Amino acid sequence: MKDIDTKIIKVDSLRPDIKLIREGAELIKGGKLIAFPTETVYGLGANGLDPKAVANIFIAKGRPQDNPLILHVNSIAQVEELVMDISEGSRKLMERFWPGPLTLLFKKNHKVPNIITAGLDTVAIRMPNHPVAFKLIEISGVPIAAPSANRSGRPSPTMANHVIEDLSGRIDMIIDGGPTGVGLESTVLDMTSEPPIILRPGGIILEDLHGLVPEIVEDLNTIQYDEDMIPKSPGQKYRHYAPKARLILFIGGVDSMVESISRYRDSYISEGKKVGIMATDETMDAYEENIVISMGSREDNRTIAHNLFNTIRTLDSKGVDIILCEGMEMAGMGTAIMNRLKRAATGNIIRVGE
Ligand code: TXA
Ligand code: MG
Fold first, then answer.
1. pTM for this model (two decimals)
2. What are the structural domains, with CATH classification, of the chain?
């Protein structure tokens, strides 16, 4: 793939300059690729109704062809154009959580190109809650296909710099709207299955979904991440969120994690390895003068979610060989955080006592 000139434009994320968004929308309409901020992570967008443009997303990211994409819309009327039908449950969820970090699966109709769904008969759709993303869809006038704007397998980008790092020279434009809010991707919920099932925990937590649709269950793949489970969503089977360093995830009581991480650190350092630690406000000081980054307070796992991917990328940029990372409680956003960390660790998980 030969290098293309990637134009980078800065916009105010709350009140984006419409002239600049229009420039992005023109590129989308012309079949080009542009990265833009959403409330979850940066997306790499193309006209979702143009199979050639969508094919270029897979090339730019190095993404396996069998991993389907999410279509981003700015109205429920736009969903009606793309799907066979909308269940009552889905309608309630859209009315309550859109715009927002919830992706729903529907039975697709003929208007959705097969390349979007990787040949499946369901299509994933969401309405982003970010003025830049929202305006871009509105002005383009088409649903925008957008995976996270990282090279395949890397942590998702939460800042324009992350996108530049991964995709500069491979896409036409990057709209820099500053850091994203949630920091993790949307929750992917299959409302076409009986019972409805969460294929990827994310920005909208199970407890909130249960308020409207109590039947929703979690897919064990997304919580346990066992190597030999059968994936229900293509995205579950690929190496993901992986740092260049080897990430080891610790699970257990806070004091036991600190004790165990300190021992592993000493042992890796004595082997001549450079070690980075992903800690929390509560445990930070216990590790003394090492490369330690706090992701935030254990009392507030939304902040930890917000900082997660940037922490991994920052440690990579410091050139560490090993990342030792504290696990979180599986409550609220903790489920989504642990899903990403377990996958970033690809099996390097150490269970310590309570
Ligand atoms: O927050 C987000 O969802 C971000 C922003 C940019 O909107 N997008 C994002 O897209 O995370 P991506 O492509 O990185 O992840 C989409 C996930 C993948 O795990 C994919 O396998 C799954 O959604 N998915 C998409 N369509 C599907 C379908 N029809 N059936 C099952 N899983 C599907
Ligand atoms: Mg992704």
1. 0.96
2. 7-223 (3.90.870.10), 246-351 (3.40.50.11030)
